[in-house]
């Protein structure tokens, strides 16, 4: 499969890293980018750079649109003007298919940056999910992790808030953990980042063994103990409400982006 990335921002870089880890080589990937700093990154990764006007002659299986939302619709038109037979996957948040000039040739996707480690979660939606292009999109993102085909396009807004943005919310919480851990003095030579990495990775190991959060919590807490006191504080602070409001804010912004186009 030969693919071209139009734009080389954070999510494009994460997808490419995951594709490399899956065995895809630089021979199968090309990029279009105008930012000089990002061009230097492309050179470091030995990725081939092409010009937009040369798209048609390259015969790519898929083209990934990975530009900023404000540039997406203009760039999409430029792509189809240059290569009208293209199948385009957009990783741009918030913009509905009917906003594009050729919605029948566009597939919406929402991957997250975990694609870089082969643990990505990507939501896909297209009007025709039986098309060859959609099947190719599934094959592509399956190389970087899990793929979920959404039943309707409206679900993309919530998927974006939970999966696309949700990692950052958890990183924000873990940042608080790390700052608290830094207050403890270690005198045995342990590396703080290694300690914290084990702490974080153990959460995934625990869930893999017991996918029930109540059971996991009950394994740690004891009546009247320190964990119980902390959990009661979190409950009084309405932590679940705080997170739901964050998801709702991200979802609403996704809708706003769509309406702004």
TrEMBL record:
Nuclease as UniProt keyword: no
Binding residues annotated for NADPH, in chain numbering: 54
Function: Catalyzes the reduction of 1-pyrroline-5-carboxylate (PCA) to L-proline.
SUPFAM superfamilies on file: 6-phosphogluconate dehydrogenase C-terminal domain-like, NAD(P)-binding Rossmann-fold domains
Keywords attached to this entry: Amino-acid biosynthesis, Cytoplasm, NADP, Oxidoreductase, Proline biosynthesis
Similarity comment: Belongs to the pyrroline-5-carboxylate reductase family.
Reactions the enzyme catalyzes: L-proline + NAD(+) = (S)-1-pyrroline-5-carboxylate + NADH + 2 H(+); L-proline + NADP(+) = (S)-1-pyrroline-5-carboxylate + NADPH + 2 H(+)
InterPro entries xrefs: 6-PGluconate_DH-like_C_sf, NAD(P)-bd_dom_sf, P5C_Rdtase_cat_N, P5CR_dimer, Pyrroline-COOH_reductase
Pfam family, one: F420_oxidored
Organism: SAR86 cluster bacterium
Root EC class: oxidoreductase
Pyrroline-5-carboxylate reductase dimerisation domain span: 153-256
Primary location class: cytoplasm
One Gene Ontology cellular component: cytoplasm
Example GO biological process: L-proline biosynthetic process
Enzyme Commission designation: 1.5.1.2
Protein's UniProt name: Pyrroline-5-carboxylate reductase
Biochemical pathway: Amino-acid biosynthesis; L-proline biosynthesis; L-proline from L-glutamate 5-semialdehyde: step 1/1
């Amino acid at each position: 499969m030969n693919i071209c990335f139009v734009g080389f921002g954070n999510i494009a870089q994460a997808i490419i890293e995951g594709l490399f880890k899956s065995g895809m080589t630089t021979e199968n990937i090309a990029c279009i980018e105008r930012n000089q700093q990002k061009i230097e990154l492309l050179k470091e990764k030995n990725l081939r750079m092409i010009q937009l006007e040369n798209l048609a002659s390259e015969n790519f299986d898929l083209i990934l649109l990975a530009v900023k939302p404000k540039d997406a619709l203009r760039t999409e038109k430029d792509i189809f003007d240059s290569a009208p037979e293209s199948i385009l996957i957009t990783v741009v948040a918030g913009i509905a298919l009917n906003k594009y000039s050729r919605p029948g040739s566009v597939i919406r996707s929402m991957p997250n940056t975990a694609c870089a480690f082969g643990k990505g979660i990507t939501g896909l939606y297209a009007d025709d999910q039986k098309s060859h292009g959609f099947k190719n999109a599934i094959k592509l993102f399956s190389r970087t992790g899990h793929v979920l085909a959404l039943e309707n396009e409206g679900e993309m807004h919530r998927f974006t808030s939970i999966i696309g943005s949700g990692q950052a919310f958890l990183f924000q919480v873990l940042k608080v953990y790390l700052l608290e851990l830094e207050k403890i003095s270690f005198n045995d030579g342990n590396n703080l980042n290694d300690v914290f990495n084990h702490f974080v990775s153990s959460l995934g190991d625990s869930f893999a063994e017991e996918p029930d959060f109540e059971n996991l919590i009950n394994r740690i807490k004891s009546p009247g103990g320190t964990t119980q006191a902390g959990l009661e504080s979190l409950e009084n602070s309405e932590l679940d409400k705080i997170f739901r409001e964050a998801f709702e804010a991200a979802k609403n912004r996704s809708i706003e982006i769509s309406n702004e186009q």
